[in-house]
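Structure representation.

___
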Amino acid sequence: MSCIKMKDNCRNFSLSKWQDTRKPWLILIIVTIGLTCIAHFLFQEYLFMEPCEQCVYIRFDMLVMAIGGMIALINPKNNIIKIFSYGLAFYGIWLGLEH
């Protein structure tokens, strides 16, 4: 019986439903803050590498994406919050590609 239920759940899965959960937004936050912390603590503090100007811009862009994810964690089913969060996330991506 459980295999049949599992197949039904997989059949009903879609990306539009997944974005209404907190999981993808939490993954976005963990990845962006994690990469920023690695860049700061490993390369800058432990290996004593000074960041270039572009590295500082990229870190800022990653934190903009993380802020978008944090806002989406408030209520991911609210379309206004979701649109604002997507806007911040894509703005951070655009800034990162621009630099």
In short: The helical segments are 2-11, 15-18, 23-46, 53-72, 79-98. Residues 23-98 form one domain.
